[in-house]
Specification:
Keywords: Oxidoreductase, Thiamine biosynthesis. 27% of the residues lie in helices and 25% in strands. The chain is of the alpha/beta class. Bound molecules: glycine.
Length: 375
Amino acid sequence: MTTYDAAIAGGGIIGLSVAYELAKTGRKVAVVDRGPLHGEAVSAAAGMLGAEAESHHGGAFFEMCKWSRGLYRSWAEELKDRSGVSIEYVPEGIIRAALDEADEAELLARAAWNSEAEWLSPEEIVRMEPEVASGELRGGYYFRHDHQVHPLRLATALRRACAALDVAFHEDRPVTSLLKEGNRVTGLQTSAGPIFAQQTIVAAGSWSSSLLSPHGIDLPVFPVKGQCYSVAPEKPLTRRTLFVQGCYLVPKMDGTIWVGATQEEAGYDKTPTVGAMAALHAKAVRLLPAMERARFVRTWAGLRPGTPDGLPWIGFVPGVDGLLVATGHYRNGILLAPATGRLVKELASGEPCSFPIDHCSPARSADGRGEIIRS
Ligand code: GLY
């Protein structure tokens, strides 16, 4: 039976990014998923690279988000070369607008730790995006480096790039447990038999804890449902992504606008609900009234992997040999994909990390802030 260099539990964006970076080193890699590849958190994503728009305080994680964002342009080109698929990297920024006094105050306070953000008056926002309603606008930040990609095209590009590097995919094959010999993890036990590997990486998003906790590994990850919808307006309504508290509108290359996303701790339920769509749409229309006349395209929901302090778990699991985790990326899986792939490759190879990741360590106490950060 084949013994892989690396077996990865989870074929989402993070699992595929890790597989891709490991396979580029010549390793023999297997990716195992309980369903089809990239069927979960990626489907909650709109593809914003919102390092600034989605951060609520400065520090190591904010710096890591900006670092990963900065890797994207060349990563997009590299993936295109290897897979033939464009991930539709759009180098337009995000306007994060405030519609009430409290939100304006929260945004303005960010100047203390984000010196790059540019404050725009309501008039300046409307000059940049003439379809935006000026009535309730109190101003907002322009995050010119927060670009966007197409999440499903990113998943396809990664999958094809991995396939070209001979990564083995095992889909619709639930991982039932970690294989262990003494203190060493030796691979993954699956519904269709064992998959042995020198190194095992758990990148199973919201399902990660169920693989880890039977072995006494306490790294909480829980599902946070995100519902989205998309529309096709008759003419383009915005060039840049627009973002107000609890709602963003992302204009895609095909002319559609993706609107997201709710944030619900509702277990593993992914049912889209009329109430959530109505609430999202009400926010979208306050900012962009012409959304009311746009043709409805579709609605969907996905499960983000949340952690108690809102930070991912990346690194070797202390006290267990041969086991790494790359999970719990919460709202930042797309943004942090290139960084996570590279960092896990470096850790697995015994190389120094190109960016400090102590704040993501599986050895940390995640009780810190007690509650996940809301956008
Ligand atoms: N990063 C956007 C979201 O999770 O809704």
